[in-house]
Amino acid sequence: MSRLVVISNRVAVPSGDGSSRAGGLEVAVRATLKRHSGVWFGWSGRVATNEKAVTQTIERDNHSYVVTDLTEEDYQEYYNGFANRVLWPILHYRLDLAEFSRRDLSGYLRVNAHFAAELHGILRPDDVIWVHDYHLIPLAKALRERGHANRIGFFLHIPLPPPDILTALPNHERLIPALCHYDLVGFQTDNDAANFARYLTNECRLPSRDQHTFSAADRTVRIDTFPVGIETAEFGRLARRAARSSFVEGVLESLAGRAMIIGADRLDYTKGIALRMDAFERFLETYPDWQGKVTYLQITPKSRSEIQEYGDMERQISATAGRINGNYGEASWTPIRYVNKSHSRTALAGLYRCSRAGLVTPLRDGMNLVAKEYVAAQDANDPGTLILSRFAGAAVELDAALLVNPYDTEAVAGAIARALSMPPDERRARHEALCHALAASDIKFWADRFLTALTRPPKPANWLRQVSSLAVS
Ligand code: F6P
């Protein structure tokens, strides 16, 4: 295959010390690049102090990592601004949290243009380009304007809401149709893909043959669903090893025989952590026999802390954990262990394996790879139970989990009780069904399917002759 050029806002340059961030996108791209040599381009994670953004190339394990700094202005307007205070909440159906005064697109477009300018010097005509996530919606357009006719694909890791919500996005008519400059646009679920198809049909009036292939000016764009997976077998092996590590043994010892429930999420309002804690409180209240016998470990590394909504949420979650521990805790038992430290993949794998239940209850999530990792980490003979939000993309495949409505704290409390007292036969049967779902689409399958679809020559499109006169802006 031609060279693969992956582009995302975050780039996980191998550090050599085994430390890593836990974002789903980075896990997926890193696993993909193990099988395809190429380039990974994006933000260095640094904010240049002197207006001068430096771009540098780091060669590691047969890959080139090309990373570029952001200026303070770019960082505020693009990352803290339009991407994370406007696009992120709206694409997660949270119009109430969108900062509408940040409607200015210019910083976001400027950084996309900067990425395109840096890529211009790197790209070869036969490179296959794969762009990831909501930070980079207009990147293909910026590259096309510089004359790049490569196959360019886009994958959205987060949800895409229905047109009724998407049209609340300031400047949506300038931004969303720019996705038509890609050859292939991939989504996590059929629901997300159908929402985009409806947007193109209703808002842009683009003709389509089958709601999968749309014609926009002189181009066609294909839309499809590619649910992102994990390195299932490898994660299972990691969990088996990690469960015997001194770190996990130390945690188990500290529980003094109590059952453990685990949650692991970036500190983000989409993850529903405060409501999850409320549900745990409701569980302790409704099923008092469990008081003193179960510990809920919530691992939540901080994220996007400079953004006001994140600061507010951080305070709310700490207060909730404090309140519950104050009300129910005893000198010898803390009901909730709330930890902001990030943990290595290995440590998490071991903790998942030793937990009787995994609580994955986002209010809205593109996929949620923690749910898949929790399943992969279990001992098939004595598996824990996954409690999963019906609003996570993962719920489509993992429907053998205990599916819950995360807003309904009483129902989540009931699911916790059910998970903790579930007979072994039922746990094994559910786990087997979940493993089948994981086996059907691991990370390799995801990347191969996307790249095959992207590099497949476009079908001869005689229907295109009747193309819409609507130009894609
Ligand atoms: O998976 C969604 C995502 O926004 C990624 O694009 C991102 O890298 C990750 O979550 C973590 O967020 P951030 O890069 O803002 O820390």
Provide an overview of this structure.
This protein is α/β, with parallel strands linked by helices and 473 residues long. Helix content is 41%, strand content 18%. It has helices spanning 24-33, 72-91, 106-120, 139-145, 163-166, 172-175, 190-202, 232-242, 246-255, 273-286, 308-328, 345-353, 369-377, 394-397, 409-420, 424-440, 443-455, and strands at residues 4-10, 38-48, 55-60, 63-71, 128-132, 152-155, 184-187, 213-216, 219-225, 259-264, 294-299, 336-339, 357-360, 385-389, 402-404. Strands 3-4-2-1-5-6-7-9-8 form a nine-stranded mixed sheet, with helices on both faces. A six-stranded parallel sheet has the order 12-11-10-13-14-15, with helices on both faces. α10 packs parallel to α11 (308-328). The longest helix has 21 residues, at 308-328. It binds 6-O-phosphono-beta-D-fructofuranose. 6-O-phosphono-beta-D-fructofuranose (F6P) binds at residues 9-10, 23-26, 133, 157-158, 303-304. 6-O-phosphono-beta-D-fructofuranose binds at residues 9-10, 23-26, 133, 157-158, 303-304.
